[in-house]
Amino acid sequence: MSASVPEPGSASPPGGGGRIVVTGLPVAPGLAVGTPVFHDETDIDIPVLALSADDVSGEQRRLATAIRMAKKQLADVEQNIEREVGRRDARIFSVQGLLLDDPAFRKAIRERIATRLVNAEVAVRDAVAAWSDRLKGMGNEADRDPVADLRDVGRQLLRILAGRPGRAAASAVEKAGADGSKVILVTRELLPSDTATMDRRRLAAIVTASGGAASHAAILARGLGIPAVTDVDVSSLPACGGPWIIDGGQGRVILNPQPEDLDQAVRQSQHYHDLREELAARASGLVRTKDGVAVEIMLNVENFDSVHPEMMSGLRGVGLFRTEFLFMERRTFPSEQEQYEYYVEALSQVGDAEITFRTIDVGGDKPLSYFSLPTEPNPVLGWRGLRLSLQWPDMFYTQIRALLRASAHGRVRILLPMVTMVEEFRRARTMIAQIQSDMQVHGVPFDEDVPVGAMVEVPAAALAARDLGEEADFLSLGTNDLSQYALAVDRNNARVASLYQPLHPGMIRLIKTAIDGAALANSQLSVCGEMAGDPDSVLLLLGLGGRSLSMSPYHLPLVRRLISAITLEEAREVAVQMLELRSTTEIRAELRGHVLRLVPELSSLLAPI
Ligand code: PEP
Ligand code: MG
C-alpha cells in the first residue's frame, strides 16, 4: 500500500508543490533520478466484430499468423535477455513461448472464433480472461507469475492483431528520453516483455501499481539493474515534471525533491553505479583475491553492441566469442571475406587484448534458418557443434581460413565446441594444420601460433579433462551444456526448468574432476558458462581451484567485488563444505550465506535464490 506524505515546511520548487514522499514495495534496488513519464496501456482498444461462418477460416489464419509472429518476437527477447542477463531470467520468455504452443490455449481461442463467431481480438481477450481466472494462485517456483505471463502473451497477440507489433511502453520511454534525459516510467502494470525491451540508456527507474517482488517484471528489473518500486497508487501521483528520486532499495518515490535530496541521491546512485561497474578495478587485468591470488577475468560476447571498448582495458580479452550469432543473424552463409572483415572488426575493438573465437556452434537448440538440419529424435544429442563442422568441412574450412587471416590483425584463439572425444579434436587440428600449410604456400599472412582449445561441456569429456588437456592448447568449461547433459535436463525446456540446477552435488564433483584433470595436464582451463558470472558459484569455483572465468559483461562488477573481498583459504573451506552436502537447496543457501557473510554489501545487488 502506498502513502503520500507531504513534508511540512519544505520549500516549493518553482512550478511544483512541496516535497512528497510516496512509499511502495521495494522490488529492485538502486537509486535513480529522472523525469517521470506516465504511461498506461493496460487495455488495448480492440475492434468487436460479428463474423459470418464464411469469415471463420480467414480469421483462424490471422490468428495463426499472429501466434507465429508473437513466437518470433518472444524468441528474440529471450535471446537478448540470455545474452545480457543470463539463462535464468531468459527462461521467463520460454515459459511464455510454451503458453503460445499450448494446444489447449490455442484451442480455447480458436473455438471462440468458430462457435461464437467473434474476431480473433475478442477471442484472444476472452480466452486470456478465462484462463487468468483458472490460473490465479497457481504460481510455483519454476513459473512464479503465470497470470502476468498469460496477460503479457495476450497483450502481445492483441498488438500484433491490431497491426501495432511495437511496444508502446518502450516507445514512450524512447520518446521522453530522446533529448538524453533519464526517464522514470510510471505505469499501472509493466509486463515482462515490456521490461525486457526498454532502452536501458534512457530508463532510470520503474514505478508501478501492481506486480510483487516475485513478478517476472521485477525479476527482470533486478537482473537488468533498473531500480523499481511497486504497489504505488500511480493514479493519485501528481503529473509534476520532476525530477523525481526513486529509491528501489527502500521503496520510496520522492516528488519535488529539495536540492539536498538531489545531491544525496546523485551521490548515492553514483556509489551504486560504481559498485556495479567497479570502475577502479579496470586498471588491472588480474583481479586478486584478498590474499593476493590472481584470478583471470574475461568476457563472453556475441557481438560488440554490449561491450564498450574501454571495458577491455586491462582484461585478458574475450574468453568466449560465440560466432554462431553472426551466422544466425543472416539469411545466407557469410562468405570467407565477410567473416574475415567481421572478425577483424571485432579484434579492432579490443586493441591488444585477445579474442577466443568459438567456431560455429549450431544445431541442437541453435538452428540456422538457411541450413535445414535433418529432423533428429534427440537434436541436442545429435548433429551439433564440432560434430557438424567435421561432417560438413566446407563451412569449417571457410571459417577457419577467415579466422586465421584475421589472426594477422590481432590476438586470436580458436575454440572448438562440443568436443566429445580426443579423436574429434585431433581431426579438427589436422584440418586446421592443412589450411595453415595451404595459406603458407599461397603467402597468405596469419599467426602461426594461434592456440586451439576445446570446450569441455560433455560430461564424459569433463571426466577425461586430463586427456583432452594434454591434446588441446587450452580448455574452456561450458557449465551450461555440462549441466544440461549431466542432469539430463533440457536447458531450454521450461517444464523441467526447476531441475536445471548447476549447483547439484553431482555437478560439483564433475567440475572438480575437470579442474583437477586440467591441472594435472598443465592445461589452462577457464570457466565460461553462466556459473562463471554467478557470485555464489564463483565462490565455489575458486575454492575448487578455478583461476580463470569468462562471463557476460553484466556480471563483471559483482564478480570482481566478490573475488577481491575473499581469501583463497576461505573459498577452499567453503568448497570442502559444499562437497559434503547432499542437497542442491542446501548448497545454494549455504553458498549465498557465505557470500553475504564475506561481502555484505552484495546483499542489495543479488537476485533472490
Ligand atoms: C556452455 O555450454 O556453457 C557455453 C558456454 O556455451 P553455450 O551457452 O553457447 O552453449
Ligand atoms: Mg555450450
Task: Indicate the topology.
Layout: E1 3-6, E2 20-23, E3 25-28, E4 31-39, H1 56-84, H2 87-101, H3 103-116, H4 120-135, H5 146-161, H6 168-176, E5 183-187, H7 192-197, E6 203-208, H8 216-224, E7 228-230, E8 244-247, E9 252-255, H9 259-277, E10 286-288, E11 294-301, E12 317-322, H10 324-328, H11 336-350, E13 354-358, H12 386-391, H13 393-406, E14 411-416, H14 422-441, E15 452-456, H15 459-463, H16 465-471, E16 474-477, H17 479-487, H18 505-520, E17 524-527, H19 535-544, E18 548-551, H20 556-564, H21 568-580, H22 584-598
Parallel strand pairs: 4-5, 5-6, 6-7, 11-12, 11-18, 12-13, 13-14, 14-15, 15-16, 16-17
Antiparallel strand pairs: 1-2, 2-9, 3-7, 4-8, 8-9, 10-11
The structure holds phosphoenolpyruvate and magnesium ion (MG).
Distinctive features:
disordered N terminus; nine-stranded mixed sheet; alpha/beta; binds phosphoenolpyruvate; globular; Enzyme I, Chain A, domain 2; binds magnesium ion; Glucose Oxidase, domain 1; 45% helix; 22 helices
Entry summary:
45% of the residues lie in helices and 14% in strands. The chain contains 22 helices and 18 strands.
Please describe what this structure looks like.
By secondary structure, the protein is α/β, with parallel strands linked by helices. Among the domains are: 2-42 and 167-268, Phosphohistidine domain (Glucose Oxidase, domain 1, 3-Layer(bba) Sandwich), CATH 3.50.30.10; 53-161, PtsI, HPr-binding domain (Enzyme I, Chain A, domain 2, Orthogonal Bundle). It is 45% helix and 14% strand. It has helices spanning 56-84, 87-101, 103-116, 120-135, 146-161, 168-176, 192-197, 216-224, 259-277, 324-328, 336-350, 386-391, 393-406, 422-441, 459-463, 465-471, 479-487, 505-520, 535-544, 556-564, 568-580, 584-598, and strands at 3-6, 20-23, 25-28, 31-39, 183-187, 203-208, 228-230, 244-247, 252-255, 286-288, 294-301, 317-322, 354-358, 411-416, 452-456, 474-477, 524-527, 548-551. The strands form 2 sheets. A 9-stranded mixed sheet has the order 1-2-9-8-4-5-6-7-3. Strands 10, 11, 12, 13, 14, 15, 16, 17 and 18 form a 9-stranded mixed sheet that branches. Helix 11 (336-350) packs parallel to helix 13 and helix 19 (535-544) packs across helix 22. The two termini are 26 Å apart. Residues 457, 478, 480-481 line the site of magnesium ion (MG).
